[in-house]
Amino acid sequence: MNHLSRRRPSLLACMLLPVSAAHAQVDEVAETVVVTATRTAQTADDTLAPVTVITREDIERLRPISLPDLLAGQAGVDVSSSGAFGQLSAVSLRGTSAGQTLVLIDGIRVGSATTGAASLELIPPDQIERIEIVRGPRASLYGADALGGVIQIFTRPGATGGSGWEVAATGGSFGTFSGRVATRGAVGDTRYHLTASGLSSDGYDVQKDGVSGSFGPTPIEPDDDRYRNTALNVGMAQRLGNGAELGAQALRAQGRTDYDGFPNRTDFVQQVLSAHLGGELAAGWYSRLTVGESRDEADSLIDGTDFSTFDTRRSSASWQNDLSLPGAQLLTLGLDGWRDCVDSTTAFTKDSRDNWAVFAQDQFALGRHQFILGLRRDDDESFGAQTTGNATWGMALRDDLRLTASYGSAFKAPTFNDLYYPSDGFYGGNPDLDPETARNVELGLRYDRATLSFNLNVFRNDIDDLIIFDAAQATVANIDRARIDGAEGGVTWRTEDWRAHAALTLLDTENRTTGGELPRRAETSARVEVDRLFGAYRVGTTLLAQDGRFDDAANTVPLAGYGRVDVRAEWLFAPQWSVQARVENVLDRDYETAATYAQPGRAGYLTLSYRTP
Amino acid sequence: MTRWRLTHRPPAATSALAVAVVGHLLLIGLLMLALPAPRPPTVHSDRVLQLMPLRAAPAVPEPATVRTPGPSAVIDRVAAPWAAVPAVTDTAAAPRAAPSAPRPVSRRPGGAVRPAAVPLERPVAVDETVAAAALVAAAPDPLATLAPSGDGAKAVAQAVNKGPEQEAAEGRLREDIQRRVRHDFARHFRYPPLARRHGWEGAVRLRYDVTPQGQVINVRLLASSGHPVLDRDAEQTLSGLAPLAAAAWAEPVEALELAVHYQLTEG
User: Fold this and answer.
1) Structure confidence at residue B60 (pLDDT)
2) Interval A527-567: pLDDT, tens
3) Given B9, B194, B203, which is nearest A324 (Cβ)?
4) Is A535 exposed, middle or buried (0-12, 13-18, 19+ CB in 10 A)?
5) What integer pLDDT is reported at residue A241 of this predicted model?
6) Is the predicted pLDDT of residue B152 greater than 60, yes or no?
């Protein structure tokens, strides 16, 4: 079977149908009614919310070295990084900061409680099955930090994934080698999966030597900056009958990243454990209990000597109830709680905090109008109670065209660094901080057909009480206000042989206290992917472009705009076997997304992969 | 860790860890059990749009003579706790192992249950009748010995006494009704929002009767999708269909089947 094309005769029948709504067909041959609907994002209902979904198929087509590489330029996504291969990266949605974007892995909140951001650069794409990027505030469902949006990463295969093995090996520039072995299957009512992956790269010298940076001249360390990442992901789910399911899984990625300066190496661990029990308590009442724990551990070293440790452990539990009510109404009620614990060589004045929340969301339809109303109350040990809400209205103009309007509020919790960092005379935490709060309004239009879909969203997000360093007080305070106006659009065209996708993001950010632009947000970002299938061959290209922006909040250090072109070719040389060659940054452009840190130049990779039929 | 002991709140981390560890030990055990066994290769993808040849049980043209019941003639009544109406289900293993195994004769022209225009409480007698038919069928001459008294026997007798033309006509009628019901069902489709949210898919098989007025009644579950939400949606949609237009048969038509496949596609 040609797994490149995944073509099916029935696809032709679906081509002419809108995919936005459910539809049903009669298959006379099989004497079966086939009721079909587009898979909605699990993170938010994507008939109304703007969502980008990246599937395992996309990942295997693009085979990105890092997750930030895969996300860069997608609608609403801004990525800035201190280089490739495990270097610090900031991924944010809709012009917000990395800490204002919530990251979930298999439903569990991840990230460092001290910095407030998730280390997406350390999550291997080899471990990812699916990514949902939900743009716009979702605090009324997920609470703190879902201000610019939510990025949810799924590492477990879908329930209908069948069984088999996949093996892939990659080698290429910068002494880079990576491998992946994955298996999944079912024994009776038990499904399991196991994925092991590893990546090793000699890297390159990420920071330019001896040029002027924000903190004086950059260090002179001309050595290559290495990266190692080994990861394992195992999980199982047991059907209990009556649709109930019990499951558990674990993901652990660990390794080291070298860089320049003081310190110059970090040994890391990223770990997510979760277990869930879900089932129907009564007809139409689905209840799901999830417990989990995420760890973000970083030991920094200077030339091999221990320098610092910042470990975050976040334990969480949530109980979510979905009630199907008459009129296609779906009411969600839930309780959510988590505890952040920090273990560090730095003596934080407080090293743990609890957050409890109750939330409700109602989704219902009246004729061609669809509504989602959400309300959530968080009670956090460090900053008190926060109430957030969301109201979304969608109207089907035609069965393939939908207009949406929504309003939502959100907040970002101050981090442990903001609140509890011990004062050293130059900087100390401020335990009286309030969260940063935001209100977002937006309008959207979405057209959906099997071959062609597009979406356009315009939004305004007002953020108050931005936490800013106040040099006079040697601490941080809720000082600034910001406004982000933006528009984002995406077009996807798919036929049996072609796949083309383009995303464009326009941003106008303003710090309304200083009048400056927010740092490292490009006014224009674009990503274009085109792939063509020729029988057993597939060729494709990706174009990534961003215009100029400032590296710093004072708007004194400009970063030039850039364009990057990647090309790839794949050959299915035997059933189940394929070989892919790709060249990144074909034009060998020098560019930076963080000042003084070079992005890699032209680089080539070769991947050999096998999958059981 | 002392902090956990001091708190009154559930030590989520500890329990999560415990569940995860136990889960994975279990997984490893299962893997060791499962891996040596050769497994039939299957398509390794969770995103393939596929029309599964979900062949519903050939509930139609009834044979001119009563068949000898195979193992699948044993009918269990599975009382599904979620369903308001208890479901009738064939025993799981037998029909799957041998899809062409003879199925029980459950069409009873002069059946015990006289369907009304509104759904009945429960077609309890269906199973008994089928069992009776099975008993009769087991005998060399259905009418000679062991013929049970009552409607079931009458049904069998009638079925046996039918001529081939009559049988063919009835087969066509049943085909026609099932086809019309499929199309009516497809017009009243919806994907249950809860199932869509959770990504649930599956195939449901239902059995139903139709009154002379064209009303679908006595909808019961023949094979579950594994997700009660989908099973219920299919049952309710089928039960809620408007009467078939221009019903042109004098007797109720019974034990018809409908297969519904719920599937999600990547948008």
Assistant:
1) 35
2) 999 999 999 999 999 999 999 999 999 999 999 999 999 99
3) B194
4) exposed
5) 79
6) no
* CA–CA separation, A303 and A227 (whole Å): 15
Least confident piece of the model among A212-216, A236-240, A591-595 = A212-216
Encode pLDDT of B97-119 as tens digits: 333 333 333 333 333 333 333 33
Cα A183 from Cα A164, distance rounded (Å): 6
Contact between B34 and A185 using a beta-carbon 8 Å cutoff? yes
Q: How confident is the model at residue B25 (pLDDT cuts 50, 70, 90)?
A: low
**Structure confidence at residue B24 (pLDDT):** 61
The H or E element that residue A92 is part of is strand A89-93
Mutate to test the interface with B, among A1, A3, A31, A352 (most CBs of B within 10 A): A31
A101-105 and A149-154 strand pairing = parallel
Interface pTM (ipTM) of the complex?
Answer: 0.77
The whole-number pLDDT of residue B113 equals 36
CA pair distance A158, A494, nearest whole angstrom: 22
DSSP notation for B40-66: ------S--------------S--SSP
Across the range A280-308, mean pLDDT stands at 94
Q: Rounded to whole angstroms, how far apart are CA atoms B190 and B233?
A: 9
d(CA B245, CA B259): 21
Name residues whose C-beta falls within 8 Å of residue B190's C-beta, 6 or more positions apart in sequence: A22, A35, A328, B233, B237
Closest to A405 (Cα-Cα) out of A397, A395, A393: A393
Structure token digits, residue B30: 């299962």
Six-digit token string for A425: 């005379």
Q: What is the mean pLDDT of chain B?
A: 58
Going from the C-alpha of A110 to that of each of A115, A298, A345, the distances in angstroms are 12, 14, 21
Cβ separation of B186 and A36 shorter than 8 Å? no
- Residue B61 is predicted with a pLDDT of 38
Structure tokens at A380: 């956090």
In chain A, the residue whose alpha carbon lies closest to the alpha carbon of B265 is A38
Residues 183-212 on B with a CB inside 8 Å of A are: 183, 185-187, 189-194, 196-201, 203
Contacts 24+ apart (CB under 8 A), B12-16: B12/A291, B12/A292, B12/A293, B12/A315, B12/A316, B12/A317, B12/A337, B12/A338, B12/A339, B13/A293, B13/A313, B13/A315, B13/A339, B15/A275, B15/A291, B16/A273, B16/A274, B16/A275, B16/A291, B16/A292, B16/A293, B16/A315, B16/A317
List of chain B residues whose C-beta atoms are within 8 Å of the C-beta of residue A315 = 11-13, 16
Long-range contacts of B1-6 (CB under 8 A, 24+ apart): B3/A341, B3/A352
pTM of the predicted model over 0.80? no
Longest dimension (CA), chain A: 79
Inter-chain CB proximity B13 and A158 less than 8 Å: no
User: Please, what's the b/e burial string for A242-268 (b: 16 or more CB within 10 A of its CB; e: otherwise)?
Assistant: ebbbbbbbbbbbbbebbbbeebbbbbb
Give the rounded percent of residues in chain A with a pLDDT score beyond 70.
Answer: 95
Measured CA to CA, the distance from residue B189 to residue B205 in angstroms comes to 15
Q: Cβ(A249)–Cβ(A233) under 8 Å?
A: yes
**Would residue A5 be called left, alpha or beta, if left means φ above 0 and alpha means ψ between -120 and 50 degrees?**
alpha
The Cα angle at residue B133 between residues B128 and B139, in degrees rounded to 5: 135
